[in-house]
# Entry
Amino acid sequence: MAECVQVMGSFDGWTQGEEMSPEYSGDYARFSTILKLRPGRYEIKFLVDGEWQLSPELPTVGEGMMKNNLLVVE
# Structure
């Protein structure tokens, strides 16, 4: 189970990101946060216990090490 999750991305120039809070349910935790973003397209990635991860629930853009999730805010 992950202990520390941050969402990083183009929304802040990949600088600080946003810490995500865990919600525990039995043997697993679901991490979430609220970002106040203007409409647009953002590339994001998750830093899970110090390792980069993609979400299988979001579309991806790019290739190889430059592969990121795409977050569209309308």
